[in-house]
Amino acid sequence: MTSFSTSPGTRDILPPDAGRWRAFQGIFEEVAATYGYRYLIPPMFEDLGVFLRLGEATDVVTKEMYDFEDKGGRRVALRPEQTASVCRAYAQHRPVPPWKVWYAGPNFRYEKPQQGRYRQFDQVGVELLGPCDPDADAEVIALAWEFYRRLGLRQITLSVNTLGDEGDLQRYTTVLQAYLESRVDELSEESRVTLTRNPLRVLDSKRPADAAVVAGAPRIVDQVGDAARSHFEGVLSVLGSLGVPYAVEDRLVRGLDYYRHTTFEFSSSALDAAHVAVGGGGRYDGLVEALGGPPTPGVGFALGLDRTLLACDAEACFPAPDPSVEVFIVDTTGGREATLLADELRKSRRSVDRAYEQRSMKSQMKLADRSGARIAIIVGTDEVAAGTIVLRSMETGEQRTVVRSEVVSEVASLLGGVA
Ligand code: HAM
To answer: CA-CA distance, 61 to 42, in Å (whole number)?
Structure first.
C-alpha cells in the first residue's frame, strides 16, 4: 500500500509542540497589543508581482519562490514573507496612518531544508506604516526585545545598521560595484552573476571563496548623508534610553531589497549556528509606493517561530503548556455515567477526559494517571445505586464519597473556581 509522509522542509507540529506554538503566538499578541498593534490576516498567496518587489536579485525571488499559474491563468505565488502583503493591503485599502498591525502565520520558501530552515516556516511580526520617526524604529525593536524577554530568552543579541536613504544607497551601490568589479576574478561564479544584478547582494554571500573580497568591501556608513545619519543616531539614542543593548554592525544589509535607513537582526548566542538570525527587520520607505500606494514610510520586523523555539530549547525556557485535563472519569458501569458526568462538568467549563471501550478499572486508573488530571471521579454500580460518586485526589490518593448531584460544586471546592 502506498504510504505518505510530509514533503521535504515541512513538518507536522504534533501535540504538545503545537500547543507551544499557540502559546507563543498568544504571548506575541499580548505584547503587540500593549504597543497598540492590531491583528491583520494577509492572504497566503497573491500576485507574483507583489513579491517581485522583494528584489529581482534576492534568493527569495530568484530561487525560493513557490510561484505558479492558477487555473485562471494568473501568475501567483505563496507568500515568502508578509511585509510586501501588508504594504499591498495598505495601498489597496488606504487606512488612516499610522497603521500598526501584527500578523502570524506560515510563509513558503524553497530553501535547502535543515535544522532551523524549512520550506514552510512560521513568523510573527509587526509593521508600522506612516511615520518616519526614529521613535517608530526604536519602538518596533523594543517590542521584539520585550517579546524575547517574555519568552524567558536571555541570550539574544541585537545588531543594527543603517543603509542610508535612497540617494545614499545608490551612491554606495556605485562605489561597491566599482570595488567588486576590480576584484571580480576572486569572486565565486554565483557572486559574479549576482554582481551584474545587484552588487549589494554579493555582501550576503556566505561562500568561503567570497569571504576575503566581502571583508575588504567599502563600508556603507562612509556614504550615509547627514539626514540619514541623524535618523540613525536618533534610533540608537532611544534604544539607549530604553535599555535595549545593541551592536552597530556596518555590514548588516539583510537579504531583501526593500530596506532603507535602519536594518536590524536578532541572533541567539545559545544556538550553535549563532550567525543564523532568529528575527530581523528594518525600515522600508518606498515599498508602499512601489506597490501602487501613496508615499508611506514603514518599519517592522518578523521573528521566525521555528528558530526562536530552538533558541528557547537551547536556553531551557518557554516549555510547552501543560496539556493535562483537570478531571478524569473512571466508569466501570459501561460508560454512560462517564458520558453524563463529563457533559455536566464540561458545561461548567472543566476540562474532562474519560476512558472508552469499557476498560477494566485498573486500565482506566492507568489512563487517569497518564492524563495528568488532579482529580479522578470513580463510578461503579454501588455508586450508581446510591446516587453518589467517589472523588479521588490524584496527588494524595485521598478519596471521599459525595452526592452525585453536587459534582460541579464538589469539583470546584477541590480545584478552585466557580461552581
Ligand atoms: P527575513 O529575515 O527574511 O525577514 O525573515 C525573518 C525571520 O524569519 C528570520 O530571521 C528567521 O528567523 C525566519 N526565517 C526566514 N526564513 C526561514 C526559513 N526558511 N525557515 C525558518 N525560519 C525562517 C522578513 O521576512 C521580513 N519580512 C522582515 C520584516 C518585517 N522587515 C520589515 N518588516
So the answer is: 19
Query: Domains of the chain: which residue ranges?
Result: 17-165+225-314, 327-415
What is the pTM assigned to this prediction? 0.94
Q: Say which CATH topology domain 327-415 has.
A: Rossmann fold (3.40.50)
C-alpha cell at 223: 556614504
Q: How far is the CA of 303 from the centre of ligand 1 (A)?
A: 6
* pLDDT tens column, 367-384: 999 999 999 999 999 999
Q: pLDDT tens digit string along 17-49?
A: 999 999 999 999 999 999 999 999 999 999 999
Judge if the beta carbon of residue 277 lies within 6 A of ligand 1.
yes
Strand arrangement of the beta sheet that strand 352-354 belongs to: 352-354, 327-331, 375-379, 388-393, 399-403
Q: Give 17-165+225-314's CATH code, choosing from 3.40.190.10, 3.30.930.10, 1.10.150.130, 3.10.129.10.
A: 3.30.930.10
Cα 295 from Cα 275, distance rounded (Å): 34
